[in-house]
Amino acid sequence: GAVVSQHPSWVICKSGTSVKIECRSLDFQATTMFWYRQFPKQSLMLMATSNEGSKATYEQGVEKDKFLINHASLTLSTLTVTSAHPEDSSFYICSAGLAGGDTQYFGPGTRLTVL
Amino acid sequence: DAKTTQPPSMDCAEGRAANLPCNHSTISGNEYVYWYRQIHSQGPQYIIHGLKNNETNEMASLIITEDRKSSTLILPHATLRDTAVYYCIVRGTGGGNKLTFGTGTQLKVEL
User: Fold this and answer.
1) A108 C-beta neighbours (distance < 10 Å), count
2) Per-residue DSSP letters for A34-62?
3) Which residue blocks in chain A are alpha helix, DSSP H?
């Protein structure tokens, strides 16, 4: 149980294009999902907290107009990187928590490369 | 959330127990200790968590000191597949509470 999936697992795009990453909780409902970013040889950095049916809460320094988050249902959250640039190349990871629970479960991550 | 301190790296022989320490001297009474691990190029994997009592599951054991200022994650019989970065995280209750990742401990299990 408590499986989280991400799609795609990797994506390569041209600079200036937008990329959408999906995060799904497969066997549970998640009222809260989190989006992280991880650069090579660094730890995970929280980007935003996504609550179903409401606006996401972004961490300091994360541009909300560049990283669009939508959490339209209890099993799906999406992260759209708009007008991607090479410096946005990173490993993007989502996590989801069981409704009413405390433990977060992570997806396998999405490797984004912007050329 | 309270900060944690972990050694940057540890080595362990396959088949032996791996004991990973974590200091969290500023932990408050309602904060849990969580352990996750991240194998290279994968998302973090939940291992175990606890409040004040020792905990055990199929993956590991968590030993929390009586004053709760430190804890130890024990992998009883480490295998090569346990090579990963292990993160000790202190976090408050509630599904909306975020996890703050430190630098973790790189555990290398060798033959």
Assistant:
1) 16
2) EEEEE-TTS--EEEEEEETTS--EEPTT-
3) none
- The Cα of A29 is separated from the nearest Cα of chain B by a number of Å equal to 12
Element (H or E) spanning B75, and its range? strand B70-75
Neighbours of A55 (CB within 10 A): 12
Q: Taking CB atoms and an 8 Å limit, are B34 and A103 in contact across chains?
A: yes
- Sign of the CA dihedral running A72, A79, A46, A94: positive
| pLDDT, tens only, B41-69 | 899 999 999 999 999 999 999 999 999 99
| A43 contacts chain B (CB < 8 A) | yes
Q: Does the structure show a pLDDT above 70 at B96?
A: no
